[in-house]
Amino acid sequence: MIELRRTDTGSRLIKASAETIYRALVDPEAVASWRPPQGMRAEILAFEPLEGGTFRMAFIYEDAGSHGKTSDNADVFEGRFVELVPDRRVVEVIEFESDDPAFAGAMRIVTTLEPVAGDTRVTVSCEDVPPGISEDDHREGIASSLANLAAFTES
Question: Dihedrals φ, ψ of 117, to 5°?
Fold first, then answer.
């Protein structure tokens, strides 16, 4: 039997230009500031923001009681930029470093930027989500990252 993997999506209207938001998606210092969900911090281990470029990051849990995908307190993942369309779209493919098969496989993340009356609707669609990631937790994490992105980019 083939296991179907799901798609989780989140969207938010951000009071910033698509250009400002796009810069925040491809700058490693910016990504470290906004991308980790609430309760985590990021370490950028490698980051090449060009099509075909690779990246590697660690999201570290701030709560000592948390359990990460890679270690007791961290989610480490690596990936590559599949498509970069300035001010419109970023497509990434990531894989978690984990011994647990529930987190195995590539997950595709598509971030689209749509101008709306001076603001920008940012939509994040995560395709082929590993079954070890709970749908509720993932949607909450996407919403948290989008709230962080709004706080980072809104003037």
Answer: 45, 50
Torsional sign, CA 47, 49, 54, 55: positive
With b for 16 or more beta-carbon neighbours within 10 A and e for fewer, the 11-22 pattern comes to: ebebebbbebbb
**End-to-end alpha carbon distance in the chain:** 50
What does the alpha-carbon distance between residue 133 and residue 85 come to, in Å, rounded to a whole number?
28
Which regions in the chain score pLDDT beneath 70?
1-4, 64-68, 72
Choose among 1, 145, 148, 4: nearest CA to 75.
145
Q: What is the pLDDT of residues 12-32, one digit of tens each?
A: 999 999 999 999 999 999 999
Amino acid 65: pLDDT: 63
CB 8 within 8 A of CB 110: no
pTM beyond 0.85:
yes
d(CA 102, CA 100): 5
